[in-house]
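All the exercises in this workshop are built on plain-text protein records. There is nothing in a record beyond a sequence line and a structure line. A learned vocabulary of local backbone shapes supplies the integers on the structure line. The question running through the whole workshop is how a given chain folds. Here is such a record, shown just as it appears in the course material:

***
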Amino acid sequence: SSPAPSSRHVFSLGVFQGINFVSLFRYKIWWMIPRVGKSGIEVALETQMLLLEAKEESALIEGSSEQSSDCVTYILVLPVLEGPFRASLQGSASNELQFCVESG
């Protein structure tokens, strides 16, 4: 919910750091380009697709200081709304991932 009526609202989805991602953001009205990064501040304005790489922490391999990286999960975030609204994702200076909703 929003504290005031407006044609543009921005909601925080949480803070993330150290998570590899690839995204597609609207560079021009008619063109999107990819971007990669590891934190919320690197998510561009007008991001239309965000693919996160989530690695499950596992026990250390016996006799080694290396962690096993066998279990990797990918999470796809798509900003989708219905009707006369448009939505996008964006990052903030405090590493937050934000959901931006606009109408008319």
